[in-house]
Predict the structure.
Amino acid sequence: MPKSKRSGKRRFLLKSLAILFAVCVVAAIAIGAKLFAVSQRTAWPTIDYIELANRDAIALAESDRAWPLYQTALNAMGEIDKELLDVVIRNRREAPDRSNAIELVRSNTLALQSASDAGDRPAMGYLAVGASPRGMAAPFPWFLSARFDRFDDIINLARLQAADALLAAVEGDAKRASQRLIDALRLADRTADIPETLGQLLRNAIGAMTVKAILSILTLQPDLLDDAFLARIDAALAEMATHSADRFLRFDRYSVDDLLQRTFTNDGDGSGQMTLAGMRYLAGFADGQAPIPTDRVLGGALVALASDRAEIQRLVDEAFEEAIAIASSDYSDAAPPALVVERIQMESVGFPPDAGRVLIGAVLPPVTKAARSLPLWAHYHMAATAAIAIHRHRLRAGEWPASLAAIDASLLARTPRDLYSGDTLHYQVSEDGPLLYSVGVDGDDDRGRHAPKAHQWRPLDERPIRVAARPDLFDGDWVFLPAPPTEDDDFD
């Protein structure tokens, strides 16, 4: 090959390499500039969600705040042995340690009285304390840093109230039994005012435990409570029926919205870009279970590829609209599935992963779980209201009502629905008394044959599998009256 041709090819090759090098340098500079710009993104929270969460409590007069008296009750309460209290709650009259269980209840008279005084006040009045709304001083958003730390004490107080109600019933003390049931219902209701998701869930748990105690007393001592006592309990139940689904989920909404304002920049038009702080939050949620990069290079690259704030906000809005629909529904075939959160999680695992979707995919599932719990409490509430109306009808008419429709509207304003079938709760009268039940999770009428876990919600496609695998637990009805054997029931 002539020397001129070899020289020309060499020059062409060198020129191409120079151009490629220049392109790489420019790309590296551009990427470096982009990553530097990403690292400089700063979230500037503008809304104080602590103030929003505390607004109702701040507006209360001091004499209307129940929390100071509940604090007195919790501080006066001795160490609670749950298993020992269960001896009373489950009516184990022959248990060798029953005398110790009774003594445990009686030794907490001061705590019980303080809790009763607290229940007379209209609202909890607890004030949350959390991170500053501006800056990133706190390692996590306020909803993770401002934890209420006395939930265990509150559930123990509720157990104590239920145990004392059942003990008073055995002793024939109708006044004390009814007062403790009312106290427990009010404790449940006031707990829902605590600005934290767990407060809403604990409201449901305490309410359900109290309803079980009510049903147990109505079954074991049907003549104990007169019409006046039953009317007071019914009124306390009615107070708890005022919480809507959106109110139930509002603290979840505050939590997620606060997370977004601490994770994304704000362009003033409802959008913004994710910051490295978002990756730090995501690493906090992962808690070491998954490697989440938070450095300026790999972490910055993932942040740069994340969806903008407006898109993530749209998905959050969809998820909460779905959660409210779930919380407002029943457990029948018409119950809406949780599709939005599932879709978000599926979209977050592509390549490259969308850090914004990964973040909200980590925090939204508990919202759906909380929403699923609200219909369960609604079912307990309707059953207790119907059971009390059935007994009040007998006290007035001298016999059990022939049907739920035969009960006067002043005692039962509306016919209770079976949330698993979408129809009316099943009711009939036999020689043994009234039978009130739901078809339960298996969806079919087993004529009032009790199944211990018939109340536990499962997705529609899982129900036949669960029933087939454990028929001893799921194949049967959810029976309210007569109250099931307490050994088969879960009071927690």
